[in-house]
Amino acid sequence: MCDEGHVCMNEPNTKSAFVPVSLNNYTTTVIISEKKKRISPEFQNFCRYLRERQNQMPLPDLTIATPFMRPQLVDWLFKTSEYLHLSKKIIFQTLTLVDLYTTRVVVNSDELGLIFVTSLFSCSKFESTGIKVSDVQKLCNNKYGKEDIIGMEKKLLESINYKIDNPTSYDFLNILWEAAGYPQYNQEERNHPIIEASIQFLQIMTLDPFYTSNSPSSLAGSAFFFARDFCHFVNLWDMRYQRCLMMKKEEVREVAIDFVPKMQYCVMNQNKSSFKVCIDFGRMIENHRRKYCECIKHIQSKNTKPQCFWDNNDVKNFD
């Protein structure tokens, strides 16, 4: 693990976009610069492939979407995946499978719990640490039998024509990190602040029913957009990211703003909430406000701005 106030990188030659600044006996980080990376034709082809796969995904029917119990079950998913040491990819693959099914098939509350545990069971097979049916039964205190889980898995896979590897918001977030020149996410170490922040924003967005009504690419773009503003970048969206997702800044901003009320609610009620996602997000925002209000004067690069949305809740900072 890294020392407090420093950023770990997978590659020793990769420099962070942040430098530590000591203020009142604690250390915070301030952005100083960012290197632009040229987008190769091969990378553009991969981005195009993901977008085409996204366009082939079934469209949600928002008239039958089931937002009830979503926050509780999504939070359970994050806690369980952390306990089982599953990757972020598996978490968002599970959410994608759940949302593809529940936005096209009417389900009740009991079925929704079964859908979540079965989706996690199916998607975990992508990793060597895949969980067994018996493990799934233990996770839900034997509420569902083996036949229930296998039967639901068949329904889930048939509903998506067995195309379980659909692109997720996390996949699109990865290509934005790649386009920006950031190192890959490492679940076992501390990562680049932009990467950590964008994951936190994406996770808190999953609690909101708006999550199911937006495409994976627009969700990833919004989380990345929030993270760059949170880290005080002036240029929140440029041609590199537009080429990756084929989305203009105005389009990304419009999607991002829809999630602001839910985020503000989580920050204000983090002490009352039992959701780990809300607590972690609230702490991130509070730490930011406490530290950055004293180190704004240290931000002097032309690439950075003195305030972000979370400093004063002014949406104009997104412009």
UniProtKB/TrEMBL annotation:
InterPro entries found in the cross-reference section: Cyclin (IPR039361), Cyclin-like_sf (IPR036915), Cyclin_N (IPR006671)
Cyclin N-terminal domain location: 52-164
Origin superkingdom: Eukaryota
Pfam families: Cyclin_N
Protein name as catalogued: Cyclin family protein
Species, as recorded: Entamoeba histolytica
